[in-house]
């Protein structure tokens, strides 16, 4: 998880836009203790958050998810 080696899976410059993709299995909460870093990268790279949740995880992460989505959706809608 060293940011020096963290390269998005796919980047393409097209019509003055950077298009990226992440692997569907790379959940925001996949690596314990790196959630904040993942959320920041999602905002910086304009990548939708990915959640793999059950009831227990929803109860654990719902406050983080709702706060992050407010930020992400605000930025995503302002860039459209």
Write the layout of secondary structure elements.
Elements: E1 10-14, E2 17-21, H1 35-44, H2 55-78
Antiparallel strand pairs: 1-2
Shape: globular
What is the rounded Rg? 13 Å
Low-confidence stretches: none
Which class do the helix and strand fractions yield? alpha+beta
Percent strand equals 5-15%
Q: How can the largest sheet be summarized?
A: 2 strands, antiparallel
- Record field, number of beta strands: 2
Distance between the termini: 30 Å
3D architecture notes:
This protein is α+β, with helices and mostly antiparallel strands and 80 residues long. It has one domain (3-78). 42% of the residues lie in helices and 12% in strands. The chain contains two helices and two strands; from the N terminus they run ββαα. The protein has helices at residues 35-44, 55-78; strands at residues 10-14, 17-21. It has a two-stranded antiparallel sheet. Strand 1 (10-14) and strand 2 (17-21) form a beta hairpin. The longest helix is centred in the C-terminal third of the chain and has 24 residues, at 55-78. The mean pLDDT is 76.
What key phrases describe this protein's structure?
80 residues, alpha+beta
Outline:
The chain has 80 residues and is an alpha+beta fold. It is built from two helices and two strands, in the order ββαα.
